Amino acid sequence: MKMRNRMKKHSLKFISIFLSLFLWVYVLNSEKVKFEKTVTLEYILPVDMMFAAKPQHEVTFMIEGPRAFVRTVAEREDRLVIDLNRANARKQLNFTVDINPAQLNLPFGMVVERVLPRRLPIKLEKKASKIVPLKLQFAGHLPEKLSLSNTVLEPAEVEVYGPRSLITKLKEIPIKPVELESLTGLNQVPVEVALPDERLTLTSGYDIKFSYQLKAASANFTLKDLPIKFLSHSRKINSSVKTASVKLLVPDKIIKNRSNVSSTIQVWADIPDDARGRLEVPLKVVLPPSIHLLEISPKTIIVNIQ
Where in the chain are the domains? Predict the structure, then answer.
């Protein structure tokens, strides 16, 4: 009998401790706290419109609610979609959009106290496009005894679209400056457009190339009988021409060691993957950045591909 009474007492103590802990955790997590949450805005524009001025891309919600949900809500990635097709954008180009606190989905017990900013100014403009020429830009200087000639951009012009007020004033589009010191005997390098305003966009993806020729007063280094290598998946390639000669402009600090120069230069015949039979292919020279190609002989070779 005494044992039973002791067991009941211990059980009651355990239950009371458990209930106390449960109530303490419940009260702690039910405590009201205030916190901020930044939400990204996404806009849906009418197809013939663009922003005349950069819009607000974020708003901050001031929220109050139980501590238990704070971390979940704060770390959640939320986006608000603002459809400007529903905001009479076709009738008015300058207007405001109100952010409704109810647009943010929150757990039970949480409320939005404020939204900053609550009203978003919107300025729209008709979209327009235009074909404009590209403008070359350079940075740095060429090495001594070298000059640049036959400079060509391919394509020479691109189509750009953006706000009508910008497009009507647009005369040309610059490319990002080409570093002259980095130019080698490759004769062609990829370049990128430097759009003067973030609201301007190219109508499609352009693969723009800068073609050029490097010229020198004279060559100071000649290599003969360089073996020609074949760049192809086909293993059966024959050619009566096995070697090539190159004339180079080499910096004085490098020219002293002739064997090192020879080991860094390769001649390749670039053969298309689907090529078969008798074919004339150009030769390409792979050079270190500081060495410049002036001439290669022969420029092309005849190969037989099986």
Answer: 29-117, 127-216, 221-305
pLDDT tier, 209 (very low <50, low <70, confident <90, very high otherwise): very high
Give me the residues paired with residue 126 across strands: 49
Domain covering 221-305 in this structure, CATH number: 2.170.120.30
> Residue 236: what pLDDT?
80
The architecture (CATH level 2) of 29-117 comes to Beta Complex (2.170)
Report pTM. Answer: 0.55
Q: How confident is the model at residue 28 (pLDDT cuts 50, 70, 90)?
A: very low
Percent of the chain clearing pLDDT 70 (strictly above): 83
pLDDT computed for residue 93 by the predictor: 85
Query: CA 195: distance to chain centroid?
Result: 14
Question: Mean pLDDT lowest for which of 25-34, 114-123, 179-188, 241-250?
Answer: 25-34
What is the per-residue DSSP string for 176-234?
Answer: PPEEGGG--TT-EEE--B--SSTT-EESS----EEEEEEEES--SEEEEEEEEEEESS-
Residue by residue, DSSP assigns the chain as -HHHHHHHHHHHHHHHHHHHHHHHHHHHHHSEEEEEEEEEEEEE--TTEEESSPPP-EEEEEEEEEGGGHHHHHHS--EEEEEGGGTTTTT-SEEEEEPPGGGS---TT-EEEEEESSEEEEEEEEEEEEEEEEE--EES-PPTTEEEEEEEEESSEEEEEEEHHHHHH---EEBPPEEGGG--TT-EEE--B--SSTT-EESS----EEEEEEEES--SEEEEEEEEEEESS-S-EE-S--EEEEEEE--HHHHT-HHHHHHT-EEEEE--TT--EEEEEEEEEE--TT-EEEEEESSEEEEEE-
Which CATH number is associated with domain 127-216? 2.170.120.40
User: Per-residue pLDDT for 259 more than 80?
Assistant: no
